[in-house]
Automatic annotation (TrEMBL):
Name this protein carries in UniProt: Leucine-rich repeat, immunoglobulin-like domain and transmembrane domain-containing protein 1
Pfam families, sorted: fn3, I-set, LRR_8
GO biological process: visual perception
Organism, scientific name: Neodrepanis coruscans
Superkingdom, natural source: Eukaryota
Gene Ontology, cellular component aspect: dendrite; endoplasmic reticulum membrane
Transmembrane annotation, as ranges: 487-512
InterPro entries: Cys-rich_flank_reg_C, FN3_dom, FN3_sf, Ig-like_dom, Ig-like_dom_sf, Ig-like_fold, Ig_I-set, Ig_sub
Keyword annotations from UniProtKB, A to Z: Cell projection, Disulfide bond, Endoplasmic reticulum, Glycoprotein, Immunoglobulin domain, Leucine-rich repeat, Membrane, Repeat, Sensory transduction, Signal, Transmembrane, Transmembrane helix, Vision
Function description: Photoreceptor synaptic protein essential for normal vision. Involved in synapse formation in cone photoreceptor cells.
Chain's gene name: Lrit1
Residues of the Fibronectin type-III domain: 390-478
Domain Ig-like per the UniProt entry, residue ranges: 214-306
SUPFAM superfamilies the UniProt entry points to: Fibronectin type III (SSF49265), Immunoglobulin (SSF48726), L domain-like (SSF52058)
């Protein structure tokens, strides 16, 4: 039995359709929706044609109970989607016609329900791409004929869709260009719609790249730079399509820089984060994120800000503390560079806080802020004249890890000249001031932090210190130096005792033995006076023939002189003046 309904004024499917209907045709009506129970009693229905109606959607239960359905034609409607999961209840379905609708996409799960369909028409919709799972299903069917008995083919209609020719269409283009004899296309010459550069180009003429997840590349994982410099953090990425790059801080802080994007000749996309005039606040972890529709990946770059120029030495202290291995001249040059850098990177005149030594909280109100940071601590402000090098040779004398003694020379100073000592933790702008009593060139600073680097300057009160009037010290270095010196003194004294005591005992025994023998036994004079030998240690030129001569004849009082302090402790006091009388040592 066949039922045909084509009344253009119909808005709902008819009721009481005979249950023995085999073929139902509802065509060219005004039906916009189908109630869920409309076809439940049609268990013998094999052909359901509903072309050119006004359907906009279909429910998943619309086709419930149609186990014998073989053809489903829904072309010429306004369907925005199709209930693909309902195909599981129609195992005998072979033809599905959905052409000339408004379908915009096909879900990946649809690949599970179209394996038995030999005719699928998706042409004249608004599809831009097809899911990879659906392409893989059709590709796997190319290996063997779908119907080996009658050599049937799978017929696909994919034409007249706005295909986007990018990497997501790579598998589909490859599938069409290398089609199997088991698959036929209603129209094999498919065209690209977008991008504009490929609009109207046939699939057989385009070369697409396979989609790739983003991969992030960084030149370095750690960047170490000096305070006040400009830092460029580079991050590159590869992927198809080209991933989008973005920067953020690991601690969630705000980025104090600008981002520049560029693409290199090899197709790699680069993002450059520029941080001008970095400070300690810019230290931390920076995250570069690359993202495309396949996923996202991140890379970390650690930025370390230091005041030392030895940024390439991984063993150097982050704070740039001098390791003490250089000579005195090299150490002075190193500290001079640090002072200069402190001057350059300080953008305003340091604020003078409360003095530790005097309890004052004065501010230099007569010192104006200099707009050029390079002029700070280099020369006095206009209108102020300082005698040429009033303060010289500023040096730190170690005391404890919480205090230091500062000394300097001021040969041109008068007894009424008052000096100011300015000090601060290196890198900070707030400086404390201590006013020194007139005529003094030495002061002790208390309340320092252990293992901390400081900058200290000495100048005439009311003036801005010069660069050469400043020095840098670390409290841990002062303590280490003091401890090392004490250790050296203990070692020297111990060694001297170990060497001097045995020698003294030997000489005493020899003298005692000699006196005993002199009293009881008379021997030749040469034997009596040869109990010890002497060698000339005069640094002056020795007469020819005298070098290496042993002096063996001395008065008995000579042994007393050998036991004096000069025979051991002062044995290094070699005469330095030419022509001075020779001295002899044991």
């Amino acid at each position: 039995r066949t039922v045909l309904c084509n009344d253009p004024e119909m808005t709902l499917p008819p009721v009481n359709i005979p249950v023995d209907t085999i073929k139902l045709r509802i065509e060219k009506t005004a039906i916009r929706r189908v109630p869920g129970e409309a076809f439940h009693l049609l268990h013998n229905l094999e052909y359901l044609w509903m072309p050119y109606n006004s359907l906009t959607s279909l429910s998943g239960i619309t086709f419930k109970g149609l186990h014998r359905l073989q053809e489903l034609r829904l072309d010429g409607n306004n369907l925005l989607s199709f209930p693909w999961e309902s195909l599981a209840g129609m195992p005998l379905l072979r033809l599905l016609d959905l052409h000339n609708n408004e379908l915009t996409s096909i879900p990946p799960d649809a690949a599970r329900y179209v394996r038995n369909i030999t005719y699928l028409d998706l042409s004249s919709n608004k599809l831009m791409t097809l899911p990879q799972a659906l392409i893989a299903t059709w590709t796997s069917l190319q290996a063997v004929p779908y119907f080996p008995s009658d050599n049937s083919k799978i017929i696909l209609g994919l034409q007249d869709n706005p295909w986007v020719c990018d990497c997501s269409l790579y598998e589909m283009v490859h599938f069409l260009n290398f089609q199997s004899p088991n698959i036929a296309f209603i129209e094999p010459r498919l065209k690209c719609s977008t991008p504009r550069s490929l609009a109207g180009v046939f699939f057989s003429q385009v070369e697409l790249r396979k989609c790739q997840s983003p991969v992030v590349h960084t030149s370095v994982a750690k960047v170490k730079t000096i305070l006040g410099s400009t830092v460029l953090l580079r991050c590159g990425t590869t992927g198809v399509p080209i991933p989008e790059l973005s920067w953020r801080r690991a601690d969630g802080g705000q980025l104090n820089g600008t981002v520049h994007q560029e693409i290199s000749s090899d197709g790699m996309s680069w993002s450059i984060l520029g941080l001008p005039v970095v400070s300690y606040l810019d230290s931390g972890e920076y995250i570069c994120k690359a993202k495309n529709f396949l996923g996202a990946t991140e890379a970390f770059i650690s930025l370390i800000i230091t005041d030392s120029e030895s940024t390439d030495d991984p063993n150097s202290n982050v704070k740039g503390t001098w390791n003490g291995k250089a000579s005195g001249m090299e150490a002075a040059a190193y500290n001079d560079k640090l002072v200069a850098r402190y001057v350059i990177t300080t953008s305003t005149v340091p604020t003078l806080g409360a003095g530790v030594g005097t309890g004052e909280g004065l501010l230099l109100t007569d010192v104006e802020q200099d707009s050029n940071p390079r002029n700070l601590l280099v020369s006095p402000s206009p209108g102020q004249k300082e005698p040429e090098r009033m303060v010289r040779s500023v040096r730190v004398i170690g005391d404890t890890d919480q205090s230091i003694t500062l000394a300097w020379k001021a040969p041109l100073a008068k007894n009424t000249t008052v000096f100011s000592v300015l000090y601060a933790v290196f890198g900070e702008r707030d400086m404390r001031r201590i006013n020194v009593e007139p005529g003094k060139t030495k002061v002790t600073i208390y309340g320092l932090l252990p293992k901390t680097k400081y900058i200290v300057c000495v100048c005439v009160k009311g003036l801005i210190p010069r660069k050469e009037q400043c020095t840098i010290f670390s409290t841990d270095e002062v303590v280490s130096a003091g401890g090392t010196q004490k250790l050296i003194n203990v070692v020297v004294i111990s060694v001297a005792c170990v060497i001097a005591v045995p020698l003294t005992l030997v000489v005493c025994c020899g003298a005692l033995k000699r006196r005993c023998k002199k009293c009881f036994v008379r021997k030749p004079k040469e034997i009596q006076e040869s109990y010890v030998t002497f060698e000339s240690l005069s640094p002056g030129a020795k007469a020819k023939g005298v070098e290496g001569e042993y002096l063996t004849r001395h008065t008995p009082d000579e042994s007393n002189r050998l036991l004096s302090a000069r025979s051991s402790v002062d044995s290094e006091a070699i005469p330095k003046i030419e022509g001075q009388p020779n001295e002899y040592f044991c």
